[in-house]
Design brief:
The structure holds 3 protein chains of 3 kinds. Chain A is 35% helix and 15% strand. Chain A is an alpha+beta fold. In chain A, strands 1, 2, 5, 6, 7, 8 and 15 form a 7-stranded mixed beta sheet that branches. The N and C termini of chain A lie far apart (65 Å). Classes of the chains: A alpha+beta, B mainly alpha, C alpha+beta. At the A-B interface, helix 4 and strand 5 of A face helix 10, helix 12, helix 16, helix 18 and helix 20 of B.
Chain lengths: 581, 318, 80
C-alpha cells in the first residue's frame, strides 16, 4: 500500500544543509559546493527539486535586474526604499543590486537565456526612466531543468520528499533539522554545521475567494514552514504586518502582469473601461486604489488590452500563455475570453507573507544571516524587500558562500535528544488517534478566519476575535486532528505551519498601531505615524509560547532619499478631469 | 528505510535500457540518461535518436538540450530530417539551446541545405554561437523564398556585428516582408555610420508601424545629428509606440532643438508616452520646456511624477 | 466522529493507453509539487498514473514532462 505510515529514524551529518530546492536553495547549494568541493552539501525538498517552488514551470522575465548601463545600485536602492515606505535596511538591497549582474551572467551560462537584441546584447526593457530593470526570458520555461543539471554536475546530495518540521538549536547556534518523509512518515535527523532556509512564501495563509484551498497565487506547496520553523527556533521575523496582496485574474489567481502588458500599453480599468490608477506597478498604494474601486459602484476591475493593435495582443498572449502559468490560456478559452474583444476580470488575491513582492520575512542582514548564528534565510521568506526571482538567486548565492565559511570554522553542535523525541511525538500525534478532524478541515477553518478577520482593511476588534478563534482551532489541531496516511500527515504539518503564520499575522498587525504600505497594513483606526513607527517590527516567540513584538530602528541609509521623492507611490488615482485618448 | 539521496546508476547501466524490447522502457532510459547531465550519455542518445519508435526519438531530441558541443549538434541535425514532425520540432528547439561555439562545426555544413525546415533550424542554432564562417551562407539565405529563413539569416548577420555585411543588411531592410525589414533595421544597431543611419532614416517612413518603431528605436544606438529632423517628424506618427521610441532617441541623442516638439506630446493621455517625454526633456535640459513639465508635476502616474521632478531638477541645476 | 467521503471531480486526467507506468515511469508522480499523483493497478493488470488527492495547483509539470503525452491538466471545476 502506498503512503503507509512506517516507523523509522535515521541520522545524517553535513556541512551545509539547504532546506528548499526552489530558486534560492539550488543556488545556495551550488555556491557552497563550488567554494569548497569537499564540503558535504545537502539540498532537501518537500517535493522534488526538478519542479519545486515558485518557478516550478518557469518565469517570463526578470523584474529587477540591475545591469550596468541601464540602472545603478544607488538608483535601485532608492526605488526599493521608496516602494517600501522607507522601512528598509538598505545594505542588503544595495548588495543585491551590486551582485545580481554576475548572477545573470552565470544563469546565462547554465543555459537560461535572457532576451538579446539583434546584435546579441541584453535587451533590457525600459519601464522606468531612471532605472531600467525588466529583462525578458524567452526560454524561461527551462529554468528548473537548467538548475537541476547544475546540481547533478556539482554532485550536490539531493533529498526529495522529506519535509523539514523543526530546526534543532543550542543556546548559541543552529544544530540541524528534523525532517519527515512525506510518503512513509519515516524520520530523518540532519546534523548540520549551518542551515540555509529557502522555503518560499507563506502562500496558503488567506483563502482564495474561490474557496479552493490550492487555488492560491503562490505555489500551494509554499505553506509557510520557513516562517513557522524560524519562529519556533527563536529567530526574529520582520514586518509581517506588511502582507503580500496582489491584483490577479479573478478565479484563475494568476498575475495579470503589469510588467508584460504595461510597457505594451495594457492597463487596469474599471467596469466602464476607464483607467482609474495610472501606474500598475504592484505596491500597497496601488492595491488600496484597486480595493476601493472594487468596493465602489465602478467595479469590478479589469485588465484592458482590447484597445491594442493585433500585433501587440498576440505578443502579450505569447508571453503570458507560454511561461509561468501555462494553464492561463486554457482558463480563458474555457470562458470564451478573447483579449482582442473582452476585458479580463481581475480581483484581489488572498493575503500571504512574501518578501519577493512585499517585505514580510525572516529578519536577515546583507549576508543573509538570521538572528541565530549559523542559520540563514534567502528568497521569498527572507525580508530583503521586493526581491523577486533574481533576488532569490542572488541572496541564495550570498547565503551559500557565507554558510560555507561559517561551517569551516565550527564543529557540529550538540543535538538535543529530548527535542527530537518531543518533535516525533508532536508530528505523529494525529496518527495515534482512531478518529478526529482531518487536516483539510483544520486548514480550511484557519484560512476562512484569516479572510474574515485579518484581511485588510484591518480592524482591532476583528483581529482580536481572530486570535480567539485561532486558539480554538489550535486546541482542535493539537488534541483532535486525525490522519490516515503519510500524505495526510504532510498536510497536517502544513496546517500547523499555516496556523502559526495566522497567529503571527494577527499579532504583528495588532502591534503596529499606525497605517503603512497602503492596503497591506491599512489599520482603519490609525493614520500613518512616522514619529513612532518609522521602524521595523520584529516578532519572536515569547516566553509564554505566543508571538511577541518589538521595535527595531531602520539602519542609517546608504543612499539618501529627498523629501519630495518619498511620496512617489502616493496619489495614484486618475484625476477626474483626465480623459481617455 | 526508504531511499534517502537521489541515486543514479553508471551511464553504461542506464544505456542498457535502450535495448528494452518495449518503447516505454527505452523512453525511460533516455530520461535517465538526460538527468545524469554527464556528457558520456551523448553517444547513447545519438543512438536513441534513430530508434524505430517515434516517442523514443522525440524524447532523445528533447533530452539533448541537457548537453552541448558538436556531437550533440550532429545528433540533432540527424533528427531534423526525421519523418515525424514532432521529432523534427523537438530537435529544432534543442538546437536553439546550444551555447558552445564548437557545436557550430556540425551546423556549418548544413547551412546550405535545400530543406527549408533544416535550414531555418540550423540558422537559428548557429546565431548565438557567433561563428564567422556562418556569414557567407547567411548572406546567401537572404535570397531564400521563405521570410522566416530570411529573418533568421538577418539575425545571424546581426549577431556577428561585422561591418562588411552592411550592404547585405541594407538590401534586407527593403525586403518585401515587414518582419525581415524590422529585423534588418534592428541588426544595424551595432554600426555607427552615415550609411546605416540613412537606411534607418528611410525606415521611419515604412508603411508598417512596427518597422517604423524599430527604426526609431535603433537610431538610439547608431544615430547622429543627421536623423534629428526625421525623428522630429516621427513625433507625429499615428502610432504612439513609434512616437515613444522617437522621443526616447531624441533624448538620448541630446537633440535640444526637439524639446519644444516633445513638450506638447505630454498632454496626450498615454502614461507610457508622458513618462518617456518627461525623461527626454530631462536629458535635453532646455529651460523653455519647463512650462510643459510644470503641468505634470503632480501627475497621477508615479513614474511620470518621478521623471518630471528629475527633469525639473536637472533644468534647475543648470 | 467518523469521516465521510465527499465526491470531487479531479483536474488531472491520465490516458491509460498512453501511460507507460508499466515500464517503471513515474515522471509525473515525481514532478508534482503537491505530490497528488500515484501509480495504480488497472483491472487488466497494467499500471497507470492517476490523481489520488484533489489538491492541484494546475501548474502543469506533470503534463509538460510526461514523455508520452498521456497527462492532461484541466482547470479545477471550482475555478473554471
Amino acid at each position: 500500500m502506498s503512503d503507509e505510515i512506517l516507523d523509522g529514524i535515521t541520522q545524517i551529518d553535513c556541512d551545509v544543509l539547504v532546506i528548499g530546492g526552489g530558486t534560492a536553495g539550488p543556488m545556495a547549494a551550488l555556491k557552497a559546493k563550488r567554494k569548497n568541493p569537499k564540503a558535504n552539501v545537502v539540498l532537501l525538498d518537500k517535493a522534488n527539486v526538478k519542479r519545486s517552488g515558485a518557478i516550478s514551470m518557469g518565469m517570463d522575465g526578470l523584474n529587477n535586474s540591475v545591469i550596468p548601463g541601464y540602472a545603478t545600485p544607488e538608483q535601485y536602492t532608492k526605488e526599493i526604499t521608496i516602494a517600501n515606505d522607507g522601512i528598509c535596511d538598505q545594505a542588503a538591497v544595495y548588495r543585491y543590486a551590486e551582485e545580481c549582474y554576475p548572477i545573470i551572467q552565470e544563469l546565462d551560462s547554465f543555459g537560461i537565456r535572457f532576451q538579446k537584441d539583434n546584435n546579441g546584447e541584453y535587451d533590457v526593457k525600459k519601464v522606468h526612466h531612471i532605472g531600467t530593470y525588466v529583462l525578458p526570458m524567452p526560454n524561461g520555461d527551462t529554468v528548473k531543468k537548467a538548475l537541476y543539471r547544475q546540481l547533478r554536475k556539482s554532485r550536490i546530495n539531493i533529498i526529495n520528499r522529506y519535509m523539514a518540521t523543526r530546526l534543532l538549536t543550542t543556546e548559541e547556534r543552529v544544530a540541524g533539522a528534523i525532517c519527515v518523509n512525506t510518503r512513509t512518515a519515516e524520520f530523518l535527523v540532519v546534523r548540520a554545521k549551518s542551515v540555509i532556509m529557502s522555503m518560499g512564501a507563506a502562500g496558503r495563509l488567506g483563502l482564495p475567494s474561490s474557496g479552493y484551498l490550492y487555488g492560491t497565487y503562490e505555489n500551494a506547496s509554499n505553506s509557510g514552514e520557513g516562517y513557522a520553523m524560524s519562529y519556533h527556533a527563536g529567530a526574529a521575523l520582520a514586518n509581517l504586518e506588511c502582507y503580500q496582496i496582489n491584483p490577479l485574474i479573478k478565479d484563475y489567481n494568476g498575475p495579470a502582469c503589469a510588467y508584460v502588458a504595461g510597457p505594451l500599453g495594457g492597463y487596469t480599468a474599471n467596469a466602464g473601461g476607464e483607467r482609474f490608477i495610472e501606474c500598475d506597478y504592484w505596491s500597497g498604494q496601488m492595491m488600496q486604489e484597486f480595493h476601493d474601486e472594487l468596493q465602489s459602484g465602478n467595479g469590478p476591475v479589469y485588465l484592458k488590452l482590447n484597445h491594442l493593435a493585433e500585433e501587440t495582443v498576440s505578443e502579450i498572449e505569447r508571453v503570458l500563455h507560454i511561461v509561468e502559468r501555462p494553464t492561463r490560456g486554457h482558463f480563458h478559452a474555457g470562458r470564451g475570453t478573447d483579449y482582442r474583444k473582452d476585458m479580463i476580470e481581475m480581483h484581489i488575491s488572498e493575503i500571504g507573507f512574501c518578501s519577493g513582492h512585499s517585505a514580510s520575512g525572516v529578519y536577515v542582514d546583507e549576508n543573509a544571516r538570521t538572528t541565530i548564528p549559523g542559520l540563514y534565510a534567502a528568497g521569498d521568506m527572507a525580508n530583503v524587500p521586493h526581491n523577486y526571482m533574481l533576488g532569490a538567486f542572488t541572496n541564495g548565492a550570498i547565503a551559500g558562500e557565507d554558510a560555507l565559511d561559517f561551517s569551516a570554522d565550527v564543529d557540529f553542535a550538540e543535538i538535543d535528544k529530548d527535542a527530537i523525541e518531543a518533535e516525533r511525538a508532536r508530528v505523529l500525534a494525529p496518527t495515534k488517534r482512531t478518529d478526529g478532524i482531518p487536516p483539510n478541515q483544520i486548514e480550511y477553518k484557519t484560512r476562512r478566519f484569516v479572510n474574515d478577520y485579518l484581511q485588510p482593511p484591518k480592524v482591532t476588534a476583528k483581529m482580536q476575535l481572530a486570535q480567539q478563534r485561532f486558539e480554538e482551532v489550535r486546541d482542535d489541531m493539537e488534541n483532535h486532528m486525525y490522519v490516515r496516511d503519510s500524505h495526510e500527515l504532510m498536510r497536517s504539518l502544513e496546517a500547523s505551519s499555516i496556523l502559526d503564520c495566522a497567529d503571527m499575522a494577527a499579532s504583528a498587525s495588532l502591534y503596529r498601531t499606525e497605517s503603512r504600505w497602503g492596503l497591506y497594513h491599512n489599520r482603519v483606526e490609525y493614520q500613518r505615524d512616522d514619529e513612532n513607527w518609522f521602524c521595523h517590527t520584529l516578532l519572536t516567540k515569547g516566553e509564554d509560547g505566543k508571538p511577541t513584538s518589538r521595535k527595531e530602528p531602520v539602519k542609517p541609509y546608504i543612499v539618501e532619499i529627498a523629501d519630495d521623492e518619498k511620496d512617489a507611490y502616493n496619489k495614484q488615482r486618475v484625476k477626474a478631469t483626465a480623459t481617455a485618448e | 528505510m526508504s531511499q534517502l539521496f537521489e541515486e543514479f546508476d553508471e551511464i553504461s547501466t542506464l544505456a542498457e535500457g535502450l535495448d528494452d524490447a518495449e518503447a516505454g522502457g527505452r523512453i525511460m532510459a533516455v530520461i535517465e540518461l538526460a538527468n545524469s547531465a554527464d556528457p558520456e550519455a551523448i553517444p547513447h542518445l545519438a543512438k536513441a535518436i534513430i530508434d524505430p519508435d517515434e516517442g523514443v526519438r522525440k524524447q532523445a531530441a528533447l533530452a539533448l538540450t541537457a548537453f552541448d558541443g558538436s556531437a550533440t549538434a550532429a545528433a540533432l541535425v540527424v533528427a531534423l530530417g526525421d519523418e515525424s514532425q514532432a521529432v523534427r520540432e523537438a530537435a529544432a528547439l534543442s538546437l536553439t539551446e546550444l551555447k558552445d561555439p564548437e557545436a557550430g562545426d556540425a551546423l556549418l555544413p548544413v547551412l546550405t541545405d535545400s530543406n527549408e525546415f533544416t535550414l531555418l533550424a540550423c540558422l537559428a542554432g548557429i546565431t548565438e554561437l557567433r561563428r564567422p564562417e556562418a556569414m557567407a551562407p547567411a548572406i546567401a539565405a537572404l535570397a531564400h523564398t521563405s521570410p522566416m529563413v530570411r529573418c533568421q539569416a538577418v539575425s545571424v548577420i546581426g549577431w556577428l556585428q561585422d561591418s562588411t555585411a552592411i550592404p547585405a543588411l541594407r538590401s534586407a531592410a527593403t525586403d518585401e516582408h515587414p518582419t525581415v525589414r524590422r529585423t534588418a533595421l534592428a541588426a544595424l544597431g551595432f554600426n555607427k555610420s552615415d550609411h546605416s543611419e540613412k537606411i534607418l532614416i528611410s525606415g521611419l517612413d515604412d508603411k508598417d508601424w512596427q518597422v517604423r518603431e524599430a527604426a526609431a528605436e535603433t537610431l538610439t544606438k547608431s544615430g547622429s545629428h543627421t536623423c534629428i529632423a526625421d525623428l522630429i517628424n516621427a513625433l507625429n506618427d499615428e502610432y504612439w509606440q513609434v512616437r515613444l521610441k522617437a522621443v526616447r532617441t531624441l533624448g538620448r541623442l541630446g537633440a535640444s532643438e526637439s524639446a519644444l516638439h516633445i513638450g506638447p506630446l505630454m498632454s496626450i493621455d498615454v502614461p507610457n508616452l508622458r513618462k518617456e517625454c518627461a525623461a527626454a526633456l530631462g536629458e535635453l535640459c532646455v529651460p523653455a520646456s519647463r512650462e510643459f513639465l510644470e503641468l505634470f508635476k503632480d501627475d497621477g502616474d508615479p513614474d511620470v511624477r518621478k521623471n518630471v521632478r528629475w527633469a525639473l531638477g536637472k533644468i534647475d541645476s543648470l | 466522529m467518523p469521516l465521510a467521503h465527499a465526491a470531487s471531480t479531479v483536474p488531472v486526467v491520465v490516458n491509460d493507453d498512453l501511460c507507460i507506468a508499466d515500464k517503471g515511469c513515474t515522471v509525473c508522480v515525481e514532478v508534482c509539487p503537491l505530490d497528488v499523483l500515484r501509480i495504480t493497478d488497472l483491472l487488466d493488470g497494467r499500471k497507470t498514473a492517476h490523481m489520488k488527492y484533489d489538491e492541484c495547483w494546475y501548474c502543469m509539470p506533470c503534463e509538460a514532462d510526461c514523455p508520452t503525452g498521456a497527462v492532461t491538466v484541466n482547470i479545477p471545476y471550482l475555478l473554471k
